[in-house]
Every structure is written in C-alpha cells, then in structure tokens.
Amino acid sequence: MKRIIVFLVVSLVFASCKKEQTIWESDWSTPLISDTLSLDKLVNDSTFSENAGFYQLDLNRTLFDLNISELISIPDTTLKNTFTFAASLPVNAGTDFVNAIEENDMNIQDVQLKNIILKSGFIDIKVQNPLPTIAIFTFNLPGVTKNGSTFSKIYYAPAAIGAVDGVVTETIDLTGYQIDLTGISGGDFNLLRSQINVKSDPAGPNITITPSDITRIDATFRDVKVNYARGYFGNKIISDTTEVLIDALDAVASGTADLPASVIQFHIENGIKVSGQARFENVSNENSAGNVLTLSGPNIGTNFNMDAATGSWSTLTPSQKVIEFNSTNSNIEAYLENLGKKHKVGYTMQMNPWGNVSGSWDEVFPNSKLSIRMTATMPLAIGLDNLQLRDTFAISLVQDPEKTRVKSGELILQASNSFPISGEITLHLLDENGAILHSIVGSSILQSSLTGSLDANTALLVANSELRFVLSEAVLNDINSVQSVIVDTRFNSINPITNLVEQQSIPFGAFLAIKLKTKFTTENKF
Amino acid sequence: MQKNKLNKLILLAVAFASVFSANAQLLPISYDTTEISHEIIIDGGVDYYSTAIEKDITSKFIRGGVITNDIKDNSFAKHGAINRFGGIGAGSIEYRNYKTKIFKKKNWGFLVKGGYNAFFGMLYSKDLFGIAMYGNERYRGETIDISGTNMSFMAYQKLGFGLIDAKTKSNISFNFYNISNRTSAQLRTFELTQDLAGDNIEIVMDGSVELSSSKKFNQGIGFGVDLDFKIPIQWGKDDNTAYIQFQAQNVGFAYMYEKQQVYTFDTTFTFSGLNLDQLVGDNALFGDSISVLDSLGIRSTEKNRTVLLPGFIQIGKIVDALSPKKLQSFFGMRLYPTLIYSPFIYAGLDFKPKKWLHLGINASYGGFGKLKGGIYASVRFSDYSIGIATENVVGFVSKKANGESLFIKLRWAI
User: Fold this and answer.
1) What is the CATH number of domain A23-39+384-525?
2) Which among A338, A303, A367, A379 has a CA at the least distance from the CA of A54?
3) How many whole angstroms separate alpha carbon A296 and alpha carbon A280?
4) Which fold has domain A73-232?
5) ipTM, two decimals
6) A22, B67: Cβ pair inside 8 Å?
7) Does B35 touch chain A (CB under 8 A)?
8) B122-145: per-residue pLDDT in tens?
C-alpha cells in the first residue's frame, strides 16, 4: 500500500507539471480596404467643374448673408391705456364714458419705420372693467389693416364683483397685417394709433364711477416678424472678419505648389432699397507652417459704392458689385500658392452713408438680402514639388506575446492612378509621447498616370502600382506601444519626358482606385 | 532524463491520475467467475487517435512544443477527404459487494461507482486541417471547403448505484451525471472562396455552434445506465464454453440547465474590403451600435439544451480468466451513437504463460482512426491484480503514429 501511495504522489507531481505552449505558424491574407477616390463628389458641390476635359476650380462660397429679419427687428411691446376720473361721476345705462385716440411708441430702435407688413406675430389684448355693470369696450387700431379692413374689436367685460375687476382676454394672429406707423399726424415714424371707446351696459343699472375705478386695456405685440418695411433704415455700419477653413490643407508639411494664373471675385449683392458703401479691410491666409500671406492690391482698403436695389416685390432687382483680384491687380497667385488652411476676410459695410437721402423710402422686401459671395475660377493644373502631406490617425493595437499574435507581415497597397501626380508614402508609428518608434517606407512609389497607359474603359491614362509596407518582427514587437500612425506622402508632378516638375492638368473623371490587403504570419499559441 | 522518456512518464502519470476520477474502456476484458465477497476496481486511461493527424502534432497539443512545417506537412499528406480525430480521457473507481444480498431470493450484490469522462471527437475535411495549420494564404484562387465538419466535446462526472450478480458478475447501474463542459459544432456547409489575387473573399455557411456560456463546474444534470451482461456460449468443436459480453456505458440524456450560447448561420457573405467611409467619419462601421456578428448574418441566442450523453455499446467475446487454455481469442465491436465515431472492431489473442500472468495482442479498426495494434499485460498477486494496456502500440514508439493510448487497471478482490 505504501508503494502505491508513493507512486501516486509521484504521478500527480508529473501530472501537475505546467504544459509548455503549443506553437505553430500560419499565413493569412485578407482584403482590408477597397475604394476609389475621385473629385466627382465635389463637382456639384460648387468646388470643381469641367472645362475641355479637365477639372477646373470653380469655388463658390457665401461669406456674408443679411436678410430682412436680421435688418428689421420689432421688439415685444405692450400698449397700456388706462382711464380714471378725478371725481365721482354718475353714469346712466348705455352711456359712453371713455372715448380716446392714443398714439403709442412701438419702441423700435435704430430705424425709423413708416410702414410694415407682418410675416407673423400676435397681439394679446386684455380689458379690465372695475364697474358693477357690464362695460362694452370698442378697440380700434386705425393704422392696422388687412385686406382693406381696419383692426377693430368689441369686448363685453363682465361687471366687477367687489374689488375684483371683470376681465376679458384675447390673442389675435397678426400674420399679413399692414401697420401704419406714421402716428396721428401722418408724418411721424414708429408710432401706432389706437382708438378706445367704453360704454356702460344699456340694459344694466345706472352707476356711479369713483376716482378709484381704473378702466384698463392692454395690447401686447409679441413675436412680430416683418415681411416688408419702409422708412429710414439708419446709418448702420456692419464690420466683421470672416474665417474660411480648408481642413485638407492642414496636412501640408512642406514642399511647394505651382498654380496657374487665377482670379478671385467677391460678389456683393444688395437686395435692399438702400444705398451704401463697403470695403475690404484685409484678406490673408495662414498655412500649416504658420506662414501668413496678405492679399494686397488697390481693392484692399478702398471704399466702393453699393447701389440700392430697384423695383419692388416680384420686380425687385438687387444691385450687383464685383470686386476682382487677379494677377494684374494683386498678388493672388502667391496668395493661393501659400496653400493657406485658414483664410480671413475683414470687411466693413455702411448703409445710408449719406443720410436719409431717400426721404424715408428705404424699403426691404421678403426676398431682400445683402450678401458677399466669393468665387474662384482657375484650371486645376498643379505643379507639385515634393509637396508633403502628413495626416495622423490614432490607433491602438494590442498583442499579448504569450498568446497567439501576428509575428510578421506586410500591408500591400495596390493602386490604379489616373492623376498626373506621383506619391511616396511612409508610415511613421508613434508612441504615446509622439516619438517615432518605427518608420515604414513603401517599397515603391505611387506612379503618376503620366507613366501609365491608356485605359480603354475610362479613356484616361492609368498607372498601376503596388506598394508593400513590411511589418517586421521588430515593428510588431513594439505594436503595443503604438498610439498613432502618421501617413506621410510626398507628391510630385514630374513630367516623365523632361523629368522636371511641371503644372499638370487634372483630367475630368480622374480617380485613384486603391486596394489595401494584409498578409500576416501568425504565431499561434495554445 | 531524456525528453522522450519524460513524455511517456507524463502520459503514464496522466493515466494514473485519471484513475481516481473516471471510467475507461480497457482491452481486453477478462472474465473471472471466482466467487468473492468484495471487489474494488480502479481503472482509467487516455486514448486519442486520428485517421490522419500524426502523434507529432497531437502530442504537441498535449505536452507543448513547436509544430514545424515538416510536422504539419507529414500529417497534411495523410489527410483524405473525410477525416476523424478524437479521444477519451476517463477514470473510475468502483466498489462491488457480493456478500450483501439485496433480494432474499436472488444472489445479487450491489455496487457503487464514481468517475470522470471527457469525450472529444471531430469529423472534418482536409481543408479544415489545412486552414488551421497553414492559414488561408496557400488557398488563394481556391475554395476552402470545410462542409460537413462535425465536432463534439463533453466533460462530465458520474455517480452510480447498481446491482451485480455474484456468480456471473453481470451488473447494471443507474448513474447521475454532472455536465461540467460541453461544445458542439456542425457545419453543414462552409465554403470560403478566394480569388487568386486575394482581392475578394466569399463565404457560404450554414450551420451552428453551441458553447457553454458559463464557466461553472455544474452546468447540466443527466441520467443514464451502465450494463454489463456476460452470456455463456458453446465455442469450438470441444464444447468449450466461451463468454459473450454485452456492455453499455453512459447511455442516457443530460439537460443543460445553464444556458448554451448557440450561434446559427445560413448566409453568404462577400468581402472585398471596406471603403474609406466605413473606416472614418460619422458613418464608420465600427461604431458602438454595429454588431459584427449581425453584419455577418450570424444569429446568437442562449438556450437550454437536452443532449445525448456520449455513451457507447460494445459486444464481443471476452477472455475467460479461469480457462485452462493458454491461448484464447477475443473480439468484438463498439458503437457510439454519432457519425464522428465510426464502428470500432477489434480482435486479439490472450496468452497465459502462468496462472498469474496474461499477455496479449490485439488489432482494431475504426473509431476515430484506422487500423492500429494493441498490447497488454495483466499480473495477479494473491488478492491484487494490475493490468496495463495500450490500444495503439505504435504510438508508444513512433512519432508517425496517429495517436497514443494507455489504460491502467487495479483490482483488489477478497
């Protein structure tokens, strides 16, 4: 028995020995990315257009747009009308005891309005009767009309009970109402006339009004938006600096681009029947290296006039003003070749710089707007000399060296390129401090279409390339430390005949078809 | 100590260790009709083998080590269209009491047994071995067909109570089972086609995979029976008596009360690579709301399952330990109710040079493999006896063998 126990103990010691890992290698491949990059999506995006079989830049961006609601603003305003008597007054049934015409300031700032038509808005009316009999309120707004009818309301306010007034309230939609704001005289502005009549109930008792009885009617204009306004819109000055960001150019790290002669135009459109002046204070851009280039020329800092729009309603015709920056009146080419990622446009616009010369006949219509639009047109012919683009992507790949892992491998990029631009691609693997752990250089260059052959399907020159990025065992051993990867590409537009960098036109329909595949050797551990 | 010897010692140790927790299938089964009062049997062992996978690979999975390309190539070359691989690890301890009569008019004693079993089996194609060992790279421009793959694994413990005829030693026991782990997979169709350039992958799949979703030791409960009947027959021209044994072990069902993770799929999936919009930007594929399984058409549910225990039935002529003959034959057949295990037939000769010594050789075919040979030795010392056997003798001496096998049996009878 003792022998058996000893034998079993020895056996269990053997059995509890930790098993070594089972290890073998296998080779795997899989497609990862398959896509075609082109400029097609930008053709209908006011960025590119076709010209004689080639792309041209056809940029169209609105920098500033002022519409009627931003120009004319009517604040919420309450018209308060109260009526009292200095001494007690006996009032027989059916007697008018208030009959008044009032002039109410609409509290409109900066502009002097004569006439407005409302796009929307409400009036909240509240009448209060302090008398012990029914009071009949007639509330007229003589200057407020719709479809030829003057605003007029009659309210039967119930008798007060003790110290509690009889109250009637109503909210009326003012959409489509036209409001005359010339006051009682007909020559003022921002003033609204009101007419109020209060009568005791003809079928009620005779009463006595005391000095403490306050008859009241409040009318609150709320959420009013105008559809049309006439008057004097004041000497308004609008000054601002607008930024235009081009994110794609943020990736430019070094190198130069040679662009053809170009034109940038600023279109100022004035749909308001107000004359004005405007000027560009400054136009500049800053590239990814921090270099700022200022657009210079006589159009910078010089006032130019903006004529008032003509016509009215459906015949309204905005005035147009085009300020052009071209190679003869500015440094536009250098400006664009700075490859600015951030563009700043500073401007000042002044309405009625010469005062109320229209005799308070400034007008704004529903479709009136004041806008500045930038357009740029140039053939998309680019000369690139080692233009380096860098883009950084965060990644996190974790491998346990004690478990199944990728031991080595490669990324295979197969490309069909119909852009006349070549590229050299390098991947930099960075640790959490941004230090480069490994740089993986593509095995060959992304060939320019100029070195390719004519593709029968697209009628474009197409060059095929295969770039291999070898992931060595050393790279994969450090993969857990990699927190980001920089894709660093140097672009060149080299003419294969002259071997010189030249401007190359981008053929319409140009594409870059890519297939990224992986090929890995895994060390399987079990 | 040489590594090879150490490995064999480990295998021996595993076999002995499993003796204390499971029940095994020792060949040959000798029959001793001597009347005794008590008997304790401890047996166990491991046996794994394949139609094609050489021991050089399987031993690496058991003991560890590097599977080189040569090792992979050797096994790969042996694979046919349909292949099998599987094994059992088992051990049991059983107490038999022949003295206590359960029924007054019957000569029936009782028995109590406990044990541990693990069953693993797989029916698979050559391509499955190929992709698992080499990866998919070598199959560019081809279709990897692993349709028809059928895999089953179950580990369980049992506790049984039964009756035993004191004279014939025939017995029956009723067993309760604890299922501690279970996995099964059935790929009715699974084809992975790659074009030569490696640009496109198409997967056609129809099948299901069931896994234990819990790590608990107790995941299911089962009920089953073990039967062991010996029937005397006339054998030979001299009116000698021989014994035919009908044996069934672990025949029953189990209910998995811990839910099983069931993946089902019947879909065709084509992949040529992601486009850039799927990788970056607002519509990126790998957002929180995207399920990769859903996008592959794989449905995942949790279900309770009622499953068959991996039991077997065996019928065959056994060796009579009390026979005066020095040379006896034995043969038989074993069946598991699964396609993974093909009908297993065996035959052999028992040589008894001394009353206390049995030596034997046998050959078998089927099960998880093809033809293989076995040897055994059994020694009796007074009330004790010990037997040791292998059903795969080549596995002890050659790396080219398709498996390994070792069974131990200890017996104490008074």
Assistant:
1) 2.60.120
2) A379
3) 11
4) Jelly Rolls (2.60.120)
5) 0.79
6) yes
7) no
8) 999 999 999 999 999 999 999 999
